[in-house]
Specification:
alpha/beta; TIM Barrel; eight-stranded parallel beta sheet; two-stranded antiparallel sheet; 10 helices; about 40% helix; binds NADP nicotinamide-adenine-dinucleotide phosphate
Length: about 270
């Protein structure tokens, strides 16, 4: 695992580029699926309190001690005290004493609680219950407010990002602030796999379409967390570590961007 690509975080730590997502994997299946993912070679596992599978994910990680584990604080747990309680419960369900990365799941701007949540997370990091802290679905103005009010820049912003929705302006903000971009729904929830351009490049490279898309994320410099409950999908996507796309192939995937291509909720309103 240690020969897999990593990215430097702004807190001095590192994050694996290739990870494994677990949204919509039921708790009772999570143990087996996460176990298979780790056997396949995935080193970063992403979960969240709201996925209601932290127990199964923790059991799936089991005896492996060097897995990079991420979880998230759900919207209704935002606020200083609630965050601390929620994280204690997440750690208990996961069966661990710390997580490698703790994220605020959504900014919920209308609630006005993400700065208080962040203050709790800064303390949780000092207490070593989370080694690194970051956010998810934060817009430029949310990042700006967090940094202005606390002086602590998130290590990661996990955002919806796939060839059909690339969020280039937000990527630029991340570069300026030294935040790692982590792409969620990197396969467009599976929809991008059937795109003509992706199929053509899969044929040219002799690689599975899923691996072509994940390879694009890696070469763009993102950390990415494809989800697969089927073993053949896990293996296909993992092949992304074993080949390179040419500049021309990268540009053809770049050209699939559609600013209106969002699949998930809009962070301005979702909570
Ligand atoms: N922070 C957030 O707000 C947020 C929001 C959404 C997601 N996420 C995270 O991001 C992770 C990934 O996103 P996602 O689960 O929405 O979507 P995704 O990873 O883009 O796509 C997953 C879907 O693609 C299918 N698939 C995977 N590999 C495939 C392959 N090689 N060939 C064909 N189909 C394939 C999967 O099928 P099978 O499962 O049947 O194998 C599943 O239906 C989540 O699991 C979660 O950890 C975070």
């Amino acid at each position: 695992m240690s020969d897999q690509p990593v990215l430097p975080l702004n807190d001095g730590r590192q994050i694996p580029q290739l990870g494994f997502g677990t949204w919509q994997i039921p708790d009772e299946d999570a143990e087996g699926i996460v176990h298979q993912a780790i056997e396949t070679g995935y080193w970063l596992i992403d979960t969240a309190a709201i996925y209601r599978n932290e127990g199964g994910v923790g059991r799936g990680i089991g005896r492996w001690s060097d897995i990079f584990l991420q979880t998230k604080v759900w919207n209704e747990s935002q606020g200083y005290e609630r965050t601390k309680k929620a994280v204690a419960k997440s750690l208990e369900r996961l069966g661990v004493t710390f997580v490698d990365m703790l994220l605020i799941h959504w900014p919920c701007p209308d609630k006005g609680l993400f700065v208080d949540t962040w203050r709790a997370m800064i303390e949780l990091r000092e207490e070593k219950l989370a080694h690194s802290i970051g956010v998810s679905n934060f817009r430029p103005q949310d990042l700006d407010r967090l940094v202005k009010e606390t002086g602590v820049i998130p290590a990661v912003n996990q955002i919806e990002l796939h060839p059909g929705f690339q969020q280039r302006e937000l990527q630029q903000v991340h570069r300026e602030l030294g935040i790692v971009t982590q792409s969620w729904s990197p396969l467009g929830q599976g929809r991008t796999i059937g795109h003509d351009t992706i199929r053509a490049i899969a044929e040219e490279t002799g690689q599975p379409a899923g691996a072509v898309i994940i390879r694009w994320h890696l070469q763009k410099g993102f950390s990415t967390i494809p989800k697969a409950s089927r073993r053949e999908h896990m293996k296909a996507n993992f092949r992304a570590l074993s080949f390179t796309l040419t500049d021309d192939q990268m540009e053809r995937i770049d050209a699939l961007d559609d600013p209106a291509g969002r699949i998930g909720p809009d962070p301005a309103a979702f909570c």
